[in-house]
Amino acid sequence: MKTKPEKINKSAERVIDLLLLLSGSDKALTLNNICEMMQIPKSSAFELVQTLIYKGIVEVKDPINKTYGLSILAFEIGSAVVSNLSVVDIAKPFIQELNRKTGSTVFLGMEDKGKIVYLDKAESHSVMRPTAKLGSARHLHTTGLGKALLAAFPDRKIAQLLGSEPYPTKTPLSKTNLTDVLSDANLTRQNGYSIDDREDNLEMYCIGTAIYNHTNLPIASCSVASLYSGMTEEKEQIIAKLVTQTAMQISRKLGFTGHKPYLL
């Protein structure tokens, strides 16, 4: 619980209380509603409302019944706050927890110039660990991290991002043409998570999912990298569930309002 400071500006506190009241109401409120719910005199409520109307944050919703609600400016302010939140900062505790639960290295990445760029990681303490330097870039179509994000894009954007065929390979299992990549992307959408089955590293098996922002657009992805030799069907299902839950938690913190990892 927050400790109340010794000095509080009563006017500022009332303004914030009114904004919270309006934002939490499922309908526009009358002046009497505001007075009763805030337990303040009608004259004070009137001054507050008129000031916020003048500043463009509150507006009259119904001139006949004289009801008030938040304006589009209030929405824009809230959206600006959400959009300025750092994905890395928000994701960090979640990927650390995912690392703790799986015992495997967890990566966070974003697309840049047709590659997946590694923004953060939470490493396992295994002797054999996947290596990816923060800030480094790898292929979208071979990594679990990249494939998770690719599948969140429309097919035409996938083709645009990958460019001309054949695509570069990292291992003999890497997919080199658009048909195979799109088929794999459709499977990712159906399952809710991507699989990199030794396509970037012959010793690694990676599972990833896309992360969305407040406009419901894919902006990043997270993945869990495990040794292929230790992967079982049961372990895959456990990790897949955890990574999708983690991606959804991060997306929710970023303002995502969808209900599943892939919206296409």
Helix/strand layout:
Elements: H1 10-24, E1 29-30, H2 31-38, H3 42-54, E2 58-62, E3 67-70, H4 72-83, H5 87-102, E4 105-112, E5 115-122, E6 137-139, H6 144-150, H7 155-162, H8 178-191, E7 194-197, E8 204-212, E9 218-227, H9 233-253
Antiparallel strand pairs: 1-3, 2-3, 4-5, 4-9, 5-6, 7-8, 8-9
Helix pairs in contact: 2-3, 5-9
InterPro entries: GAF-like_dom_sf, HTH_MetabolicPath_Reg, Tscrpt_reg_IclR_C, Tscrpt_reg_IclR_N, WH-like_DNA-bd_sf, WH_DNA-bd_sf
Organism: Leminorella grimontii
Domain IclR-ED: 73-256
The beta-strand count equals: 9
How much of the residues is beta strand, in percent? 15-25%
Kindly report how far apart the N and C termini lie: 41 Å
> What is the molecular shape?
elongated
Compute the average pLDDT.
Answer: 90
Strand order of the largest sheet: 6-5-4-9-8-7
Please give the share of residues in helix.
Answer: 40-55%
Q: Point out poorly predicted stretches.
A: none
Main beta sheet strand tally, sense and closure = 6 strands, antiparallel
Radius of gyration equals 24 Å
Number of helices: 9
Q: What pattern of helices and strands is seen along the backbone?
A: HEHHEEHHEEEHHHEEEH
- Class inferred from helices and paired strands: alpha+beta
What key phrases describe this protein's structure?
six-stranded antiparallel beta sheet; three-stranded antiparallel beta sheet; alpha+beta; 9 helices; 264 residues; 9 strands
